[in-house]
Amino acid sequence: MSDQSEVLALLADPASYEGRPSTVDRIDTHSASVFLAGPHAYKLKRAVRYTFLDFSTPERRRQSCEAEVRLNRRTAPDLYIGVTPVTREADGRLAIGGSGTPVDWLVLMRRFPQDQLLDRLALSGGISPELARRLADRIADFHAAAAPMPHRGGRAGMRDVVEDNSRALAAAAAVLDASTIEAVNTACAEAVARLGPALEARRAGGFVRQCHGDLHLRNIVLIDQVPTLFDAVEFNDTFACIDVWYDLAFLLMDLLGRSLASQANVVFNQYLLRTSDVGGLPLLPLFLGCRAAIRSKTSLASASLETDAARRLEYEARARDYLALAARLVVPASPRVVAIGGLSGSGKSTLAAHLAPLLGSPPGGVVLRSDVLRKALFHVAPEEHLGPEGYEPAVTREVYRALATRAGDVLGAGGSVVVDATFLSPEWREEVARVAARAGVPFTGLWLDVPPALMADRLSRRTRDASDATIDVLERQLKGDLGPIDWQRVDASAPIELLGARALAAVHGSAAPEPSPDSRRCPPPG
Fold it and tell me: What CATH number belongs to 118-329?
């Protein structure tokens, strides 16, 4: 829309910056060019106009820069320094932050190590369960503080997303598979029609907020080991003022698309634990499918702008992969209940974490752990120790009643459930089975058998866990009367790969495959 070549040349020149850095690195996107110089990053909005953004004039770019700084200081106040002009000085030269007439505008940020971006960490296996939980906590806090936007989102907002995706994908039939395009577009349109009342109820209930809007791994960075969200959408409220679950769905889809299903399930479960927002679960297949379709659409847009033939083919292949992912994610799977019981140290929580990503609709089942719920009843952190008052018989009965209630709530929202508890009493085992029966979904009860010495060893090595069980607790359990156990018994002394295969086979009623030689050498679950 206007010539920025002189501004780009200025920003590419190390002599333009205070301290004269030895190099200037440049990163280009469809809407901006970022220059990394010394300790700072300088972001120039490109003079472009698309259907969804307009940076065609310096004044529009100034307004967008100011909005970007304001919105991103919500989550990354130390990264966003402010807005600075590119000025035309009296001698005709351009300067960064000079005293002359502004001709363009920059977002000024503190530079951070690129290897701390979460998309880079994902490539190296650096997104641990602990980091995934901390990330979910940060997002939950951000959403809780975000301003409600009741005039946005809802049925109309998602209908617009689906229709825009449908037009873009349909126009790409020469590159994408036509039958997959039709399947995705039809499934998304039918979901919006079916879920319209729920989408409207969410909007009216305050769940449409001024969110991030572009919440994928490349827009999250570790700063002093804290997951920091940045580069939120400032240029289009339609993209940013959305349901909180639709915001989170971008991150979940990104993890799933990178074959990080376990990490996606951890983020999903921790976010749900923090928010108790079960009402968004029926919408998640639609939200995930739309996010993957958007990535297919943007990959096609990048391919159309690419002059290098190999890179263009790479973008087109990526578009096909995202479209296939959308087709998988948008169709809800049938829910079920899996209950995992056994004495303390038998590996219930390890198996629950292993199974949860594999059950129901992506990102998997909701894990309900009695130890975590017990701590929540006393308003303490999961790792905080409870005294004897937390384990009185009346408290334990309340814990199991709460497990049954929450399982019923998740099933009512179309989610699958993994219930992780000792289930020492036949009454508790019967109750969880009744929850599944009332919901009309399949139920599998798994009982983990482990030699006492191995359970004791695991308990002795346990640190920072929600369970307060000790070897003394285990010894009392071993002497107790468990009553008849009619659940499927599984040898849980095996490595987690073999244990998980056996458990999954029991859930689906099939034979478990033998593990690979490498998996036999894996340590047992703790």
Answer: 3.90.1200.10
